[in-house]
Design brief:
- 58% of the residues lie in helices and 0% in strands.
- The chain is built from 4 helices and no strands.
- The longest helix has 18 residues.
């Protein structure tokens, strides 16, 4: 599943960079941390029966991940 994430890397980084305060973050580092967290209890792998598309799933979770990084 993580191999699919690479297909969305540029899109996710661009979306994350648009958030207020995101210029304070190293988006490459945030993406690497997101990829590492994927598959954990905190960030489960995509479930095809969950409803959203894979792209939407990754984007919504990445945006949440970036927002949490901004709070830290």
């Amino acid at each position: 599943m993580k191999g699919h994430l690479e297909l969305f890397e540029n899109r996710l980084k661009a979306a994350g960079a648009k958030l207020p305060g995101a210029d304070q973050l190293d988006m490459d580092r945030v993406f690497t941390d997101f990829a590492t967290a994927l598959g954990t209890e905190a960030l489960p792998f995509y479930d095809v029966q969950s409803g959203p598309t894979l792209a939407d799933y990754y984007q919504s979770h990445f945006i949440r991940f970036v927002k949490n990084a901004l709070k830290a």
